[in-house]
Amino acid sequence: MSDTPKRPARAIKLNVLNEPKESYTGGKSSLCPGCGHDQISSVIINAAWENGIEPHRVAKMSGIGCSSKTPAYYLGQSHGFNTVHGRMPSVTTGAYTINKDLLYIGVSGDGDSASIGIGQLIHAIRRNMDMVYIIENNGVYGLTKGQYSATADIGSKKKKGTPNTTQPIDLCALAINLGCTFVARSFSGSKKQLGSLIKAAMSHKGFALIDVISPCVTFNNNDESMRSYGYVKENEITLHMTDYIPHFNPVEEIDVPEGHYRDITLHDGSTIRLETISAEHDPESPVAALTALHNAESDKKHVTGLLYFDNTKPSLAEDLGLVDVPLVDVPDNVLRPGKEMLDKINAALHN
User: Fold this and answer.
1) Which domains does the chain carry?
2) Residue 116 and residue 122: Cα distance in Å, rounded?
3) pLDDT band for position 6 (cuts 50, 70, 90)
4) pTM for the complete prediction?
C-alpha cells in the first residue's frame, strides 16, 4: 500500500439556498465544439446559481434553431417548453398569465426572433411581460447550412458565398423604439459582462432583452465575418464594465473615482453597477442608446453593455390587474362565479 496521504475531499461550494452548482446544470451539449452558445449556457447556469434562484421556479422557453436547443444544457430541474418556430413569445405569454411567479427565461436566435418570430417578439416587448429574452445572435441559420439571417451586417462575409448586401435588423434598436424596459448587448466571449447583465435581467420587472453576439464556428467565424470571434474582439465598443450586487449582499464601494460609476437599483432591491468607460452614455435615455447603436453601425463596430433601462413602466401583470396569487393556484370556487354573479355579468354584456 502507498504511504502517500490522500488529498482531503474538496468542499462543495453552495449558494444562498445551500444548493451546489450541479443543481443548475443540464444535459451534455450536442452543438459544434467551440460554439458561442455553450458559453452563454454556462453563464446562465452561473447567474441562476449566484442569484439564488430555485431551479423549479424557472421556466425555460425556446423556439427552433441551434439557439433553441440550448435550454437542454442548463437548469435541468426547471420547467421547459420548446415551441413552434418563432412562437416562443406567445406561448410564454400564455404561461405567464397563468403562473406569473415563475422566472421566464426565453432563449432564441436571430432567425427565430428577427424573421418568422419578429411579430411575436414585438408584441411581447410592448406588453412588457416579465421575462428574460436572450438572443444568441450569429448572423446565420446554422441548422440549414449557414444562410445569412436578418441580422447579418452589410459587407459581412461568411466562409462560403458572397458578402451580405441586405440591410440588417438591429434588434436592440427595435426594442428601444418599442419601449422595452431593459435592453443590452453583449458578446459570448465577454463572460464577466454577460454574467452581470443576465443576473440583472433576472432581477428586472418587465421585459429584459439581451442580444448576445455568439459566433458560429462552422459557418461564420472567419476574418471577413462581422460576427466572428476575432472581429468582435477587435471591434467592440464597451459602454461600461458591469457589476451586479444581489439584494442579499451589501453594496460595497469600489476603487473608482467619484463620478465614474453609477448604481441602478432594480425592482427586487439588487443593484447593477456601471463602471463608466463611455462617460457620455446615459442608460436612462433612449436617444443616447439609439445614438450609440447608430454610431457603432456607421463605424462597423459592436457596442456592448446596458444600452437602456426604465423601471417606471408597469409590467403586463400590473396592466392586466392579475391577482397576487398566480391563477394556477387560485381554487375553482374563487375562479368560477356563482349564479348570481354570472347573471350579473351576462346582463352587463347584453346592455
Assistant:
1) 21-320 (3.40.50.970)
2) 12
3) low
4) 0.91
For residue 235, what pLDDT band results from cuts at 50, 70 and 90?
very high
Strand pairing category for 302-309 and 182-187 = antiparallel
- Residue 142 is predicted with a pLDDT of 81
Q: Do the beta carbons of residue 40 and residue 214 sit within 8 Å?
A: yes
pLDDT digits (tens, 9 = 90+) for 39-91: 999 999 999 999 999 999 999 999 888 888 899 999 999 999 999 888 999 99
Bridge partners, 131 (sequence order) = 207
Q: Are 154 and 225 in contact (CB under 8 A)?
A: no
The secondary structure of 49-65 as a DSSP string is: HHTT--GGGEEEEE-SS
pLDDT of residue 12: 82
Cell 447567474 locates to: 47
256: left (phi over 0), alpha (psi -120 to 50) or beta: beta
- Which uninterrupted H or E stretch holds 201? helix 191-203
Question: Residue type for 272, please?
Answer: I
The greatest distance separating any two alpha carbons of the chain, rounded to the nearest whole angstrom, comes to 92
